[in-house]
Write a structure and sequence with these properties.
single chain; 6 helices; binds heme C; Four Helix Bundle (Hemerythrin (Met), subunit A); mainly alpha; 72% helix; 143 residues
């Protein structure tokens, strides 16, 4: 579990520093969507590790945001926009169906979890499941 939290934190941190001067608006938008999901993962991870107080409605709200953002991924990546700072691989547009399937799986996982989390002990599994969905897409489609 721990490494997923670390991964989410690392992604959120490095994104804020490395990609502050992206010019292309399409690239900006898709990065903003990703950063939002990373922020939600950070919220969930902190609660699950007891670094912040467990709050069921905040946890379910974070899951809902991930679900919404994941649903936007296919549209956000429809245009083959590029930027020197982008880590999007050309494979996204060469194999758009597989890419879209990864987004759909994350959307479905987050949607299914939304509203179900009642206690802290349930968060670890949720974070792990979502973290895996993030990572499986990044492994193939992100530099
Ligand atoms: C369908 C594929 C896919 C899924 C699912 C996905 N990502 Fe991404 N993610 C990408 C791609 C592609 C990029 C690179 C975008 C770019 O640099 O233009 C990226 C970039 C990022 C970035 C860097 C943003 C920046 O400012 O450069 C973060 C942070 C991130 N993702 C977090 C997440 C988290 C957290 C999840 C899961 C909750 C997730 N992603 C799920 C494909 C995905």
């Amino acid at each position: 579990m721990k490494r997923y939290v670390i991964l989410a934190l690392a992604m959120a941190g490095s994104a804020a520093i490395a990609h502050s001067d992206v010019k292309d608006p399409n690239v900006q938008k898709r990065m903003a969507g990703m950063k939002d999901m990373a922020a939600q993962m950070k919220t969930l991870g902190a609660m699950s590790k007891g670094k912040s107080a467990f709050d069921a409605s905040a946890a379910n709200a974070a899951l809902a945001v991930i679900s919404t953002q994941a649903a936007r991924i296919p549209a956000l990546f429809e245009i083959k926009a590029d930027d020197p700072q982008s880590e999007a691989l050309p494979r996204i547009w060469a194999d758009h169906d597989t890419f879209t399937n990864h987004a759909r799986r994350l959307n479905e996982a987050a949607e299914t979890l939304t509203g179900t989390v009642q206690q802290k002990s349930e968060l670890g599994r949720a974070v792990k499941q979502l973290g895996r969905a993030c990572r499986s897409c990044h492994e193939t489609f992100k530099d």
